[in-house]
Every structure is written in C-alpha cells, then in structure tokens.
C-alpha cells in the first residue's frame, strides 16, 4: 500500500497537508512546523536544525509499522480499539530514541534459556524470549530485537505482595486490567506511576499454542518428568546410560512400567530383601532420556528438565506437571482439593523450570522456602491467571543504578521477582527525540483539524486491512 502526505500550507508554527491512500484522498493532516528537513540529510544536519517538539518529520519515503504499541499515546482511551498500536514511521533520521524506563537488575525475564536477570543475560545472551501477544491472548517465543541497559536515577515504582512482585522505573509500561464494571476488566497499557492501588488486575500467566504430542512422545516426556522427580541416571554417556527407579509404592511401580511400554521400551525389575522394587530401563530408552536431560547442555552437574518443554501445548504442559506431581509432589493433597499443586525439591533449577511451565499453561505460581533453607516448594494454582495485588503492597523508593529491558515485536515480557511471575510491557520508543506525530482530521479551522478520532479510525482501518493482507505499507511525505 502507498500512502502520500502532500503538505499544502507551511505556516510559522504548523503545517497543513492532505493524505492520500493508493491515490485516493482520505483526510487532512496537521503537523509541526516544516523546517525544510529531508531524509537525505545526515542525522547531524537534522539535529542542527530540529527544535524538539516543534519540527515536522523530514520529507521522504518511510515504511509504516503497525505492530508497535505507542508509549506516548497507547494508553489513551481513544486508541484502545487498536490496543495502542498506532501506525509508526520507521527509520526517520534524527527522530529515534530509546525508552529507558525498564526493570531493576534483579527482575528476571523468561527467555529460551530460562529465567534470566541482568547478570545472567549479559553472561549468556539469549536470542529469543517469551512474550504475551495481546491480540490473540497467547504466550509466544519471539526474537529479541534489542537489549537495553541504562543508568537510572529516580523513583522506582514497586509492588511486593503475595500474588504480584515487581520493581520498575516510573514510566515503565504495565499491562493491566482496569475495572470496567462489576464483572469485566478492560486491558491495556498504563505507566507504573499512574496505576491506582485498587481495582487493577495483572496477568500472571497465559496459554501457549505448541506442537501436539503423539501418545508415544507424551509417554517419553512423562518418563522424563518421572526421572527428574524420582529417578536416577547412571553413567551419562549416551552409549551406556542407565535410567533406574527404586520404589515401594505400588502406584509408582505400575505407572513407570506403563510409561515404558507406551514409549516403546522395555525394563527389568527386581525386588530386594527390603521389599523395594528396582526398575531398570533398557539401554536405548535410557540413552534417549539421558541425551535430553544431559546436564552438559546446561553446564551443571545434575539432571535437568529440558527447556524445550515450554514449547509444547498448554494442555500437554499441564499434564507433564501433573505427572511430576504424581511422583514427587503432594499428590494425595491434590486429589482431595483439586485446586492447587505443591511440589518440593532441593533443586531450585527444577522448580524454576516447573514455574516457567506453569506460567505457559495459565497457572499462577510462587516458590517459597520449606522447613529447611535447603528445601523449597512451588505452589501452583489452576486456572488462576489474573490477580489483584493487595493495596498495601504498592510502594515507591529512591534508586540510583542500572536498569535493563529486552524489546520484541509483541512489546511484552514474562518476568518475575521473588519467584512470582507476571506479564508486563517492555521498552519502546519515547516521545523524547522520537518520530514526530501526524494528526489526521478535517481542516475546517485555521491551524486545526477536527473530528480526529473518527478520521483516525477510518485511516487505521485502511492500513490495518493492508497489513492483514501481508502488504507492506509505505508513506511518502512531500
């Protein structure tokens, strides 16, 4: 699609133009003063002429992006119909900036490598992260477009409650549900400093569309969960690995034998003098399990749940969590209340992965210390993906130090602090030194355009239709 903006009246403090879509006139436009800038000029030349907030975009041809939430206007009520994703001109020279309103270093982001804070990410940078798509309501694995690290000196806006925990800079974009009536919430982005202390909901988990498993694949992954929870791997070499289980409970013995058969393997069993049953999986199946759980992949010396489990369907991920609970959790308690699961472990990496899995299947979770400082427990709540923090859990504090963030096409992140996951916005472009604005409407009064909201909806509908057809959209300003 080709859009043309023809400037017809260059005044002392503003510029009037006409906008055409594929040659058809659609509306009038209002911009800042045209100071003769062009896209052929260098950034240094543009910055030498430009007056911040009082200069129209350089003339030229630009690609239009329809997927980025505007941090400046995205939270306004008139733009919620498009979830704040206003058409944005790309690569306008001298008009690009980075929003520094970010996360504190202890805030962790869920990436393809697991939960990573600032130190972790700098040591092992991931190329993709998990992000919530506000259009389809699903969690997706997306490319990281930019890693941002900045110095910050100012107020932190924080929440430290039983359900939600975060610490961000004042204008960080938070994805929240504002109470619309007694039963519904309207979801959108608001700055952290503008959040009220009541009637606001946060998303702490969501569903994920992944590849469906066959019955044999599912049985194999169930065995991985059983091995992590209650099994042993002898000799990590892929040529001679051996997976073993030692049980006294009949339900566990029966379950492992069933899973081995469904996974296409065999096993040997023997009962010792203490009436404990020892199950040894065949060499081929043991090697396959060891290869998936090989700790060398994660540079640690214990068996680990593979991160690729996060890429399965939410339904299958939930089944895997239930399987782990069957072997190493408080399974009987779950059967009695059928509302939440509790799993204990001394291996925090295992609980971290289980928490990431829970987040991917719409389950709120938190990790806590058990009776010993060396033992932890994760509590998972089924079908509880939206929560309201306690009003007393909000606070502000002074901060001077590093902040960081990751940007992606969905403009959201899955994060956690103090082992409490949630979904928030991420860094984008700021009004400071960003692309200039083009206001659309009807030029019926001097220096003004009227009916802007209705006109914007009309223009947006045309651009969005082209975007959904897979067309690239360009605008020429002359």
Question: If you had to describe this structure to a student in words, what would you say it looks like?
Answer:
The structure is a single chain. By secondary structure, the protein is α+β, with helices and mostly antiparallel strands. Helix content is 22%, strand content 36%. Strands 5-4-29-1-2-3-27-28 form an 8-stranded mixed sheet, with helices on one face. Strands 7-6-25-26 form a 4-stranded antiparallel sheet. Helix 3 (215-230) runs antiparallel to helix 4. 37% of the residues are buried.
Helix content: 10-25%
Low-confidence stretches: 429-435
Alpha carbon gap, first and last residue:
17 Å
Mean pLDDT: 87
Q: Return the structural class.
A: alpha+beta
Radius of gyration: 27 Å
Largest sheet: 8 strands, mixed
Beta strand count: 29
Q: Write out the strand line-up for the largest beta sheet, numbering strands in chain order.
A: 5-4-29-1-2-3-27-28
Overall body shape: elongated
Q: What proportion of the residues form beta strands (DSSP E)?
A: 35-45%
The number of helical elements comes to 9
């Amino acid at each position: 699609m080709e859009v043309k903006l023809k400037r017809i009246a260059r005044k002392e403090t503003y510029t009037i133009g006409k906008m055409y879509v594929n040659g058809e006139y659609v509306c009038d436009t209002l911009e800042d003063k045209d100071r003769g800038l062009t896209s052929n000029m260098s950034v240094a030349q543009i910055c030498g002429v430009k007056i911040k907030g009082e200069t129209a975009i350089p003339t030229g041809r630009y690609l239009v992006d329809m997927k980025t939430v505007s941090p400046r206007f995205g939270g306004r009520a008139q733009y919620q119909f498009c979830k704040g994703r206003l058409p944005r001109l790309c690569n306008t020279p001298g008009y690009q900036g980075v929003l520094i309103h970010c996360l504190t270093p202890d805030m962790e982001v869920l990436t393809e490598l697991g939960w990573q804070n600032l130190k972790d990410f700098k040591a092992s940078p991931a190329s993709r992260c998990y992000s919530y798509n506000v259009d389809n309501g699903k969690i997706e694995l997306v490319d990281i477009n930019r890693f941002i690290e900045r110095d910050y000196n100012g107020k932190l806006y924080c929440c430290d409650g039983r359900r939600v925990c975060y610490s961000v800079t004042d204008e960080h974009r938070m994805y929240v549900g504002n109470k619309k009536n007694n039963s519904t919430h309207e979801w959108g982005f608001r700055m952290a400093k503008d959040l009220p202390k009541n009637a606001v909901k946060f998303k702490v988990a969501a569903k994920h569309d992944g590849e469906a498993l066959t019955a044999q694949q599912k049985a194999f992954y169930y065995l991985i969960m059983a091995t992590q929870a209650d099994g042993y791997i002898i000799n990590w070499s892929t040529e001679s690995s051996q997976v073993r289980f030692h049980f006294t409970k009949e339900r566990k013995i029966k379950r492992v034998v069933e899973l081995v058969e469904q996974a296409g393997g065999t096993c040997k069993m023997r009962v010792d003098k203490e009436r404990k049953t020892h199950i040894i999986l065949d060499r081929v199946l043991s090697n396959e399990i060891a290869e998936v759980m090989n700790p060398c992949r994660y540079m640690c010396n214990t068996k680990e749940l593979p991160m690729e489990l996060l890429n399965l369907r939410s339904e299958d991920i939930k089944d895997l969590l239930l399987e782990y609970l069957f072997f190493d959790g408080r399974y009987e308690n779950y059967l009695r209340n059928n509302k939440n699961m509790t799993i204990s472990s001394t291996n925090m990496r295992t609980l971290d992965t289980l928490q990431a899995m829970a987040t991917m299947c719409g389950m709120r979770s938190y990790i806590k210390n058990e009776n010993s400082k060396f033992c932890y427990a994760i509590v998972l709540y089924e079908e509880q993906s939206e929560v309201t923090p306690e009003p007393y859990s909000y606070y502000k504090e002074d901060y001077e130090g590093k902040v960081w963030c990751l940007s992606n096409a969905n403009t959201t992140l899955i994060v956690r602090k103090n082992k409490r996951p949630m979904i928030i916005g991420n860094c984008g472009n700021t009004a400071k030194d960003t692309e200039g604005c083009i206001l659309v409407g009807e030029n019926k009064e001097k220096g003004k355009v009227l009916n802007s909201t209705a006109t914007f909806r009309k223009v947006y509908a045309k651009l969005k239709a082209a975007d959904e057809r897979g067309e690239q959209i360009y605008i020429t300003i002359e």
